[in-house]
């Protein structure tokens, strides 16, 4: 199913194992050499090239230690390029998939910044940082499929499983070591069950289906902060569902009890989980194919809903910003401009400057610092400080493939290019933030002031430190006479809250007098907090995190903020 292309030893003694998966439906033949182009984790710079012979270990003295992404070109013995792909670095491995260049095997863009490898004809894709699920779709003659592909990039494996039903347009989501495939339709029948995939065994296993409260096709699935999967929208024929339903794949239960209802049913809505845990439901169409014009805000537990009016055009794509706001783009087919808007952390909607429309349907794709790109045949960069999209010099007629490491790739039948890009500078070791300096922050659209007192965050404002992420870290915030300290949130690159440090948080500030709050994060994720001589400890999971400052019920003052690895 997969193939090990090389096991290579770097000059510093660290082993870099290069694994590229050949997909069953997209096999490339005659590959004898794989050329790797390392893309640095920084503003693009001249890349280095390394060639790896299949199944032969060799030293790689020129491989950049900080490289997180590799562009792979697989060649035959006569030098002809037979396949290409992107390999993302995970620890001491470089992993990914190879695609033949003589036909398009269906590279497609999915919002969320994860690997997606999409076969043709409408399969539904969900991805995590490690695995990708390709479910259902239709055959060339229009018959719904029961195929389910599980692509494991870490192990370099691809598995084909059979679902209990043939499913077109199901809802798909990952939850830890499980995935769900819910609803969908075949031969005019809309299904009212969900299948669970256990991803832990090798090969993965399908388990018995769970009954849903009603049939659903063209619904959207989103993972809640507590680990459940929320089904939003969809329906059967002209009957659209307003009910929300939560699937717990661990307990194997489903429920609609005490959940809010949508104000209007909609097919294929855009659903975003914000950094605050709240949910935005946007876009989609009604039973007649007309756009649903309003936005709905759901609480983090989906028990309450607030409706917002919006112009009667379809919201096409969205992106949850690190600040807690949502960036949304809408428009009509053949429109000359796309309309962009920010849904603020306080619930208000702010229109941004229109964007000249390109020839393709727009999609927002992630970048390393949380400020996404908009692609519609051209590529624009969203600048969170200016609140607008900025033109780039990058042009590609191919759809971008976003990767979890904050990279973009552009694939076509004849070539593959990739880039990494950071809008903001990294926060240097021991560099002080908060007195006239805001360049390292990703802002909430609410006003963030910088003056001689420090960085002032109005109530509920959020600013994320614009580095990629941290494993271990040391963080210091000046205290002095100020007790209006912000809460400090540590979240995974996918937005899952790892720890909240605050006077009322699970990790509480020590009660003591002192000039600074110091936070140290160990390799196991545990936190040590100090103010003066007082110390507090709290447990937190290991893994890389983003750092966000959050004003609570009143203005918060940030002084002397430093952050280092």
Structure, explained:
With 565 residues, the protein is mainly β. The chain has 4 domains: 3-85, no CATH class; 107-312, Neuraminidase (6 Propeller); 317-423; 441-564, Sandwich (Jelly Rolls), CATH 2.60.120.560. Helices cover 0% and strands 44% of the residues. The chain contains no helices and 55 strands. The strands form 13 sheets. Strands 4-3-6-7-8-2-1-5 form an 8-stranded mixed β-sheet, with no helix packed on it. A hairpin with a 2-residue loop joins strand 40 (407-412) and strand 41 (415-420). It is globular. It starts with a strand and ends with a strand.
Tell me the layout of helices and strands:
Layout (H helix, E strand, L loop, with lengths): L2 E8 L4 E8 L10 E7 L8 E5 L6 E2 L8 E7 L5 E10 L2 E8 L23 E4 L3 E5 L11 E6 L4 E6 L8 E5 L2 E5 L2 E2 L2 E2 L2 E6 L6 E2 L3 E2 L8 E4 L5 E4 L2 E2 L2 E2 L4 E4 L4 E3 L14 E4 L5 E4 L12 E4 L6 E4 L6 E6 L5 E5 L6 E7 L5 E3 L3 E2 L6 E3 L7 E3 L2 E6 L4 E8 L4 E3 L4 E6 L2 E6 L20 E2 L6 E2 L4 E3 L4 E4 L7 E6 L8 E5 L5 E6 L4 E2 L7 E6 L5 E5 L2 E5 L7 E5 L5 E3 L3 E3 L1
Parallel strand pairs: 1-5, 2-8, 48-49
Antiparallel strand pairs: 1-2, 3-4, 3-6, 6-7, 7-8, 9-10, 10-11, 11-12, 13-14, 14-17, 15-16, 17-18, 17-19, 20-21, 21-24, 22-23, 24-25, 26-27, 27-28, 28-29, 30-31, 31-32, 32-33, 32-34, 35-36, 36-37, 37-38, 39-40, 40-41, 42-45, 43-44, 44-54, 45-53, 46-50, 46-55, 47-48, 47-53, 50-51, 51-52
């Amino acid at each position: 199913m997969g193939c090990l292309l090389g096991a290579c030893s770097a000059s510093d003694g660290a082993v870099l194992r290069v694994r590229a998966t050949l997909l069953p439906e997209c096999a490339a033949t005659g590959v004898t050499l794989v050329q790797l182009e390392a893309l640095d984790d920084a503003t693009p710079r001249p890349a280095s090239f390394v060639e790896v012979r299949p199944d032969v270990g060799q030293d790689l003295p020129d491989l950049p230690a900080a490289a997180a992404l590799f562009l792979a070109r697989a060649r035959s013995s006569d030098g002809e390029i037979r396949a290409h792909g992107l390999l993302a670095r995970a620890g001491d491995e470089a992993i990914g998939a190879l695609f033949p260049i003589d036909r398009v095997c269906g590279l497609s863009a999915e919002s969320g910044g994860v690997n997606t490898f999409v076969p043709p004809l409408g399969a539904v894709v969900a991805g995590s940082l490690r695995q990708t699920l390709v479910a259902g779709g239709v055959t060339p003659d229009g018959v719904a499929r029961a195929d389910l592909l599980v692509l494991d990039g870490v192990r370099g494996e691809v598995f084909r499983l059979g679902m209990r039903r043939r499913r077109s347009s199901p809802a798909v989501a990952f939850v830890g070591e499980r995935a769900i495939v819910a609803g969908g339709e075949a031969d005019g029948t809309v299904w009212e069950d969900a299948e669970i995939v256990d991803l832990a065994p090798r090969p993965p296993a399908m388990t018995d289906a769970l009954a849903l409260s009603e049939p659903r096709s063209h619904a959207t699935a989103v993972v809640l902060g507590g680990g459940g999967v929320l089904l939003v929208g969809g329906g059967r024929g002209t009957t659209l569902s307003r009910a929300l339903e939560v699937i717990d794949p661990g307990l194997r239960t489903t429920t609609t009890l005490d959940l809010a209802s949508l104000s209007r049913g909609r097919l294929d809505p855009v659903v975003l989980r914000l950094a605050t845990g709240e949910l935005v439901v946007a876009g989609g169409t009604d039973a007649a194919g007309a756009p649903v014009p309003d936005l709905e805000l759901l609480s983090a537990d989906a028990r309450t809903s607030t409706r917002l009016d919006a112009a009667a055009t379809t919201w096409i794509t969205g992106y949850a910003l690190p600040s807690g706001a949502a960036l949304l783009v809408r428009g009509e087919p053949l429109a000359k401009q796309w309309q962009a808007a920010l849904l603020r952390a306080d619930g208000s909607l702010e229109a941004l400057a229109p964007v000249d429309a390109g020839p393709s349907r727009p999609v927002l794709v992630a970048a390393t610092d949380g400020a996404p790109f908009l692609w519609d045949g051209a590529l624009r960069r969203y600048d969170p400080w200016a609140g607008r999209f900025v033109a780039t010099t990058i042009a590609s007629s191919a759809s971008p493939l976003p990767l979890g490491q904050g990279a973009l790739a552009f694939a076509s039948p004849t070539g593959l290019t990739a880039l990494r890009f950071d809008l903001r500078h990294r926060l240097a070791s021991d560099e002080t933030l908060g007195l006239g300096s805001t360049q390292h922050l990703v802002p909430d659209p609410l006003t963030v002031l910088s003056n001689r007192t420090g960085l002032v965050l109005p109530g509920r404002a959020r600013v994320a430190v614009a580095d990629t992420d941290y494993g271990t870290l040391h963080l210091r915030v000046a205290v002095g006479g100020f007790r209006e300290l912000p809460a400090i949130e540590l979240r995974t690159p996918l937005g899952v809250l790892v720890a909240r440090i605050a006077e009322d948080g699970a990790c509480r500030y020590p009660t003591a007098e002192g000039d600074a709050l110091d936070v140290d994060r160990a390799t196991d994720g545990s936190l040590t907090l100090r103010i003066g001589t007082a110390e507090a400890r709290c447990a937190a999971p290991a893994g890389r995190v983003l750092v966000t400052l959050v004003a609570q019920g009143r203005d918060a003052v940030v002084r002397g903020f430093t952050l280092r690895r």
